[in-house]
Amino acid sequence: MTNGASSGDPASIKGFTLVELVIVIILIGVLSALGIGLFTTRSAFSPLLATQQLSSATLLAQQAALAGNTSNRVVIRQLPGELQFDAGGNTFALAREGASLSYRVSGGVFSAVPAVGLTVSFDDMGRVAAPAARENLEFRISGASQFELCLSSLGAVYPGVCQ
């Protein structure tokens, strides 16, 4: 942020540091993930909402990796009554009401997310490091309707299938 000085002297210009900007991005990610978690406890299962929660948890872990934080992963669990997302030391749960969550790596075969969990981690550049380094991951949430989410090898998250 500049101090309004118009002298053109480089020493008079102030700005935000990279660390400050990364902290703000992480805080926004945490707040958005918490906000989605609050809504899920009050409503019936929605594949769209589950996709959004998965996306938020993934982005939170990626932002932590970019900041050099050890919370650089999200663990996704499909339990008998709920879907769980562990990211940044927080657990977000969503009643699944008969819906299922599956994933595949780089165009392979879809597999159900196990109850023990699927760990998705990121390297210090924000790229996918696990379960398969620098490979696309696709998630499919099926129930009354079906939604797909792509986590590209570079860490971009978007709805639909990976291109």
Automatic annotation (TrEMBL):
Membrane-crossing ranges are: 16-39
Keywords recorded for this protein, A-Z? Membrane, Transmembrane, Transmembrane helix
Keyword Protein transport present in the record's keywords: the answer is no
Gene3D superfamilies given for it?
Glycoprotein, Type 4 Pilin (3.30.700.10)
Keyword Kinase part of the UniProt annotation? no
Highest taxon in the source lineage: Bacteria
Specify one Pfam family. N_methyl
Which InterPro entries does the UniProt entry name for this protein?
Answer: N_methyl_site, Pilin-like
The name this protein carries in UniProt is Type II secretory pathway, pseudopilin PulG
Q: Which organism is it from?
A: Marinobacter profundi
